[in-house]
Design goal:
Elements (H helix, E strand, L loop, with lengths): L2 H12 L11 E6 L8 E8 L3 E6 L17 E8 L2 E3 L1 E3 L6 E6 L5 E8 L18 E4 L7 E2 L8 E7 L5 E4 L3 E4 L3 E4 L2 E2 H5 L3 E4 L1 E10 L2 E9 L9 H18 L7 E7 L6 E4 L3 E6 L7 H6 L3 H7 L7 E3 L16 H4 L1 H13 L5 H16 L9 H6 L1 H4 L7 H4 L6 H17 L6 H9 L9 E3 L1 H11 L4 H10 L8 H5 L2 E4 L6 H10 L1 E4 L5 E4 L5 E4 L4 H4 L7 E5 L2 E2 L2 H10 L7 E6 L2 E6 L10 E4 L6 H6 L10
Parallel strand pairs: 1-11, 18-19, 19-21, 22-23
Antiparallel strand pairs: 1-2, 2-8, 3-7, 3-10, 4-5, 4-8, 6-7, 9-16, 11-14, 11-15, 12-16, 13-14, 17-18, 20-21, 24-32, 25-26, 26-27, 28-29, 28-30, 30-31
Helix pairs in contact: 5-7, 7-12, 8-12, 13-14
The site of zinc ion has 5 residues, from loops.
Length: about 625
């Protein structure tokens, strides 16, 4: 759109006199009744001025850090003004932009379209999001907005209709509702996109308590009604989580908080943060299968932490004015990294992890990043900058390529910051003081305060004066093969590799449906078909010629399965053979692995004579008994 008409439209949207305001509000109506058929219908009425108009489909989705708007699934687009159809044309370069000419005498246009939900191969919310029994509506998928208008400045009123008998839950401010319909208050496009709706045949709300005048709720939707019987012994920890999070930050920046939790095998599994809610998707049996529960124990604590770190305070490069401007991920080691650290800490403080399970996760991080040849060529900083191409990178050769390491490796990084602050202040201050300074009071409604790397260093300096700039240059910007393990040591623990696995390690193997032999043979094998999903360069498996994508057929002359492979690895310590038959494309080959180390699983053990700082970090800050 030429600058002048863009300006006119902006002024129309922004500067309407009070009596005209209502006319300047866009109206979006979404019909979710056919969601189980993977089709969502929508109608958008937009105020408009005669002349050229460019409308954009949201491309860069907040929290997804990549241009993942499901444009391929956005179909059946038609524009009308009154009874007249308005032709449109997609931009030659920007597939997310649609040009049209608003006829003279027209003050609003209507757009109708469908979204083919979750039938593509998209990431995050563009992945599978509907089942015959539930649906998650991400508003960014069903809206268009005028080019040049900031999402904060576009006012919109949204309504929705769900299938007969289905319930719904959302943090979106609701003005009116019936059982199956709802209409929002007038909100900004930012708030709308930040407030997904969870709907389902089987949906139940679990109140998590009022903290500092604000209500918290866990809304669970599932494909199997019996999964709604979540025992209070589990819910009690989520009640503690909201108290622990508020105790940590000392304030909140939401008016209500909803965990929108999906227990289903038929949606993609992930979490996506929002200011006043989170879209959390885990396997259907997460609350009845202890392994799945443990493996997902820190998902909700991670996503809730984002309300402070990521939503309220956001790296300047990710605080974009609309969904078109590319996001810059260079500070994701703070946005995601510190969130990963506090997700882990808060899950333990809330009792979602036992201290043993929490140490199991830390041990795994230590082991994973100690066997990461890719650290030698690629800095943590580069994994953050390249986030948009790393989320969908395959497991094959992951240790060489590195993946979205700014999550898990940053747990080690921020543990080191935490222990460093404790050392520098002789135990009188900790990273919690930084959290309160940077993300804390005053409480209020959602807003965004962007930050730079210098702001983070300055705030840390206020808590404990130190050369934080050099500290991060060494650990974030430099490519070095050694991971940042200073915090583990300073917290009184070190890595060991006994021959039996921890509960946490087992839980992650179950979740990933794999046999993880990374710390013995140096490879991972998918449980179902025996495909080698990853091999660590330089490991015994690599030296024997194994590589990702090969398939394991037999172990020591007998058909492969998880147990036989694990048993053979264990017996190698007593001289047992590791003779494998593998299939590479159409070709079979015998492979002899030269390995006598037996089974090895990462575990943390105490450093004798040191202070157990880790247990202090993970200890609850609030009373563990239920609030009165
Ligand atoms: Zn995150």
């Amino acid at each position: 759109m030429p600058p002048l008409s863009r300006l006119v439209l902006l002024l129309v949207l922004l500067a309407a006199a009070p009596g005209q305001v209502q006319a300047q509000v866009a109206h979006l109506d979404v019909d979710l009744r056919e969601a189980p058929r993977r089709i969502i219908h929508a109608k958008l009425v937009l105020p408009a001025q005669p002349g050229p108009l460019t409308l954009l489909y949201p491309k860069w989705i907040p929290g997804e850090h990549e241009p993942s708007g499901p444009i391929r699934d956005f179909v059946n687009l038609r524009f009308t003004a009154g009874s007249r159809e308005i032709p449109w044309q997609r931009d030659d370069e920007e597939m997310f932009a649609f040009h049209l000419q608003v006829p003279s005498g027209v003050s609003e246009i209507e757009a109708t379209y469908d979204v083919l939900s979750g039938v593509g191969e998209g990431n995050f919310s563009a992945g599978s999001s509907v089942t015959p029994n539930l649906a998650i509506l991400s508003w960014n998928q069903v809206v268009l907005y005028p080019e040049g208008v900031a999402s904060d400045d576009m006012q919109i009123q949204a309504s929705g209709r769900v299938a007969e008998g289905w319930k719904w839950a959302t943090a979106l401010p609701i003005a009116r509702s019936t059982g199956t319909t709802f209409e929002s208050e007038r909100v900004s496009l930012t708030t709308l996109v930040d407030s997904p709706v969870l709907t389902g045949r089987y949906l139940k709300a679990f109140p998590l308590g009022r903290v500092d005048g604000v209500d918290h709720e866990l809304d669970v939707a599932t494909d199997d009604e019996s999964m709604l019987d979540v025992p209070d012994s589990i819910i009690v920890h989520y009640r503690r989580l909201v108290r622990e999070a508020n105790a940590l930050f000392g304030a909140h920046h939401y008016r209500r908080y909803h965990f929108l939790l999906t227990l289903s095998e038929n949606v993609d599994h992930f979490g996506l943060e929002h200011h006043e809610s989170s879209d959390d998707r885990v396997p259907e049996r997460t609350f009845v299968d202890n392994s799945l529960r443990v493996a997902n124990a820190d998902l909700l604590s991670h996503e809730m932490t984002h309300s402070w770190n990521g939503k309220y305070r956001r790296p300047a490069g990710l605080a974009t004015p609309d969904y078109e401007k590319p996001m810059h991920g260079s500070l994701l080691w703070v946005y995601e990294g510190l969130t990963e650290y506090y997700g882990w800490v808060l899950a333990t403080r809330a009792g979602l992890f036992t201290p043993d399970q929490a140490r199991g996760e830390l041990a795994r991080d230590v082991a994973v990043f100690s066997a990461r040849p890719g650290r030698d060529w690629r800095s943590l900083y580069d994994t953050a900058v390249a986030a948009q191409i790393l989320y969908s990178s395959p497991t094959a050769w992951s240790t060489l390529r590195r993946g979205t390491d700014f999550y898990d490796e940053s747990t080690l990084l921020w543990l080191e910051v935490d222990t460093k602050i404790r050392q520098l202040t002789h135990g009188s201050r900790s990273l919690d003081d930084y959290a309160r300074t940077f993300y804390g009071p005053p409480s209020g409604a959602p807003k965004v305060i962007p930050y730079t790397r210098e702001d983070v260093e300055r705030a840390l300096n206020q808590v404990a004066p130190y050369d934080w700039k050099s500290f991060f240059v060494a650990r974030v910007d430099s490519a070095t093969v050694a991971p940042p393990l200073g915090g583990v040591t300073a917290s009184g623990w070190k890595i060991a590799y006994p021959d039996s696995s921890t509960e946490y390690y087992d839980a992650i193997e179950t979740l990933n449906e794999e046999t993880d032999l990374r710390f013995s043979l140096g490879m991972r094998v998918a449980s179902d078909e025996g495909k080698i999903s990853d091999v660590i360069p330089g490991s015994p498996a690599a030296k024997a010629g194994l590589a990702p994508e090969m398939e394991l057929v037999a172990v020591n002359g007998r058909a492969w399965n998880d147990d036989r492979l694990k048993d053979a690895v264990k017996r190698s310590a007593k001289g047992g053979a590791l003779d494998l038959l593998v299939k590479n494309d159409e070709f079979f080959r015998d492979v002899k692995i030269d390995y006598k180390g037996g089974a090895r699983y990462p575990e943390l053990v105490r450093i004798k004579g040191s202070s157990d700082v880790l247990s202090k970090i993970l200890a609850p800050r609030t009373s563990t008994s239920p609030p009165r």
